[in-house]
Amino acid sequence: MPHTTDLPFAVVADPARLLYTEFGVERSPSALLNPRAWVPVVRAVLSGVWNVVRGREHLPSTSPHGGRLGLPADFLIAPDGRVLAAKYGEHVYDQWSVDELLELAARKDARTTDRVADAER
């Protein structure tokens, strides 16, 4: 996955949607039809067209693997595999912001640190 190589966290590809099913992540026409998603979608289309015209990107597949109607879901997973937090999106652009994710991770880390300190007493 060349578009994720520089990310500072692990990314799990799931083209067969097995994990999507296991975690209850759904598909819905509302993924693209929800008005809250329109501005980001239009922005992405305009940016994509501009990059295609400049030769920096290729046109997207007309039939992407897994389809276009998947709803997003974000999971904060501890190193031991426990799901610490989850967000199931209602439309295509409904996910944690970076700031929300960092705040969640800091809170979860603080709680874990508190539990370890309590256990050591």
Q: What's the gist of this structure?
A:
The chain has helices spanning about 20, 30-35, 35-55, 100-120; strands spanning about 75, 85-90.
Give a written overview of the molecule.
The termini are far apart. The C terminus is likely disordered. With about 120 residues, the protein is mostly helical. It has one domain. A hairpin with a 5-residue loop joins strand 1 and strand 2. The chain has four helices and two strands. A two-stranded antiparallel sheet has the order 1-2. The longest helix is centred in the C-terminal third of the chain and has 23 residues.
SSE blueprint and pairings:
Elements: H1 18-22, H2 30-33, H3 35-53, E1 73-77, E2 83-88, H4 98-120
Antiparallel strand pairs: 1-2
Percent helix among the residues?
40-55%
Query: Tally the helices: what do you get?
Result: 4
| Major β-sheet annotation | 2 strands, antiparallel
Q: Rough shape?
A: globular
Note the run of SSEs as H and E. Answer: HHHEEH
Task: Pick out its properties.
121 residues, mainly alpha, 4 helices, disordered C terminus, Thioredoxin-like_sf
